[in-house]
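Retro notes, item 3 of 5
We never archived the inputs for the adenosine-5'-triphosphate complex last cycle. Fixing that now. Sequence and ligand:
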Amino acid sequence: MEDGRELAVSLRGVTKGFGEGSARNLVLRGVDLDVYYGELLLLVGPSGSGKTTLMTILGGMLDADEGQLAIFGSPIERMKEWQKTEFRRNNLGFVFQQFNLIPTLSVVENAAVPLLIKGERRKKALGQASELLDTIGLGKQLTMHPTRLSGGQQQRVAIARALLADPKLLICDEPTASLDGETGKQIMELLRSRAMSRERCVIVVTHDNRIFSYGDRIARILDGRIAGIEEKKPERASATPDKQSGDGGSSPPVHKE
Ligand SMILES: Nc1ncnc2c1ncn2[C@@H]1O[C@H](COP(=O)(O)OP(=O)(O)OP(=O)(O)O)[C@@H](O)[C@H]1O
Ligand SMILES: [Mg+2]
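Structure as it came back at the time:
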């Protein structure tokens, strides 16, 4: 516990390189990063700075060379492969830079996959997925296959799927990259309301300065390390989780002193 905030994720001295000998590319050079419950953390940095690599390590899908990674108190780097898989299934959700939709399933089926895996009844799972897809403007595409969708539409299906999985830690890699400004804001509102929970947190990797106002903190990665962390004013402390989307978070925060 620090400043009343409870630590959800803690990375210490995480390093990762690719290649051997003189061709070795040391991408992460000792990353220290904490993420707290109830926050939306933005991770920003130039292309090639190691953001996706770091998120892949955090998800237990790639091993760090060195360092400690505790997620919800579990030291993920010490787990066996099957334990990582189980841990990931129970706690983590991802929106990948490539959307990884299943081409043989319809839009609504793709979004409902996590609910179906959890054993939810098909009708209920598809109902819940349809409702969410409808709110993000995909009500007319429910029965289409993802190959017929635009990049931005596919991205929204991937986000709906991740939200329906309801993970404790949701990691989104460039979730608004293919979206227009308004849709991007709407998605960030959804992610932000998701983060506003004592048991959850969201990390969003982004280049998109249109969405910077949505982060509780912005961590900048540069030369393989976290170069700085910008704290935002606690404008969300008095906000309600079911706040309707509207101004997209760009209006000045209202402070109660
Ligand atoms: N599997 C791999 N094998 C070799 N090099 C890799 C591998 N994955 C990433 N890299 C290298 O690591 C560096 C960081 O890549 P990464 O994808 O993490 O960057 P990024 O910050 O996510 O960039 P972008 O903003 O373009 O998505 C790059 O130089 C990349 O070429
Ligand atoms: Mg990347």
